[in-house]
Amino acid sequence: MRKSLLIMFLLFTVGMTANAQKFALIDMEYILKNIPAYQSATNELNQASKQWQSEVEKLGKEAKSLYDSYQASIKTLSEAQKSKKEEEIVAKEKSAAELRRKYFGPEGELFKKREALMQPIQDEIYEAVKEISTQKGYAAVVDRASASSIIFASPSIDISNEVLAKLGYSN
């Protein structure tokens, strides 16, 4: 909501001073789809995510198997054996939760890997947009892909292909 209001304010402000300032749009999704390094990074992230998810699921299945075995034999177990089996089950479930957090938590491996792979690409795009904006005198460049409140924008102000060209990619 706050982002939409900011974009609407920016567009209103730019619209009010359109005679004095120039502005442009980019389509970040379009740009990223045309950068092979982004596609490669996305594939690498997907593969890592699948591998890690498989490891987490394996531990979860092991915990379920322990639980099922426990349930099947509960009538024949002593209190000490029940306690031991319950501790094993809890330990396995805790291991699965810790592994999930390690891989997929806010500071997890997937987050770190995504940042390491994507940040250089995003920085490159930002620098290209900044350079084009400086050369052409744009006061603001708005990302069409994330600006859901843009109802219409003339294709003539979209500089996405210029950004790709600046990065060495042609379309």
Automatic annotation (TrEMBL):
User: Which GO BP terms sit in this record?
Assistant: protein stabilization
Taxonomic lineage of the native organism: Bacteria, Pseudomonadati, Bacteroidota, Bacteroidia, Bacteroidales
UniProt cross-references to PANTHER family, sorted A to Z: CHAPERONE PROTEIN SKP
Tell me the protein family, please: Belongs to the Skp family.
GO molecular function list: unfolded protein binding
> Sorted alphabetically, which InterPro entries does this protein's record hold?
Chaperone_Skp (IPR005632), Skp_dom_sf (IPR024930)
**Which Pfam families does this one have?**
OmpH
Q: Where do the coiled-coil regions begin and end?
A: 42-102
- SUPFAM superfamilies, sorted: OmpH-like (SSF111384)
Q: Does the keyword Manganese apply?
A: no
What is the name attached to this protein's record?
A: OmpH family outer membrane protein
Q: Where are the transmembrane segments?
A: none
* Entry keyword set: Coiled coil, Signal
Signal peptide: which range, if any?
Answer: 1-20
A GO cellular component annotation here is: cytosol
Q: Which organism is it from?
A: Bacteroides clarus
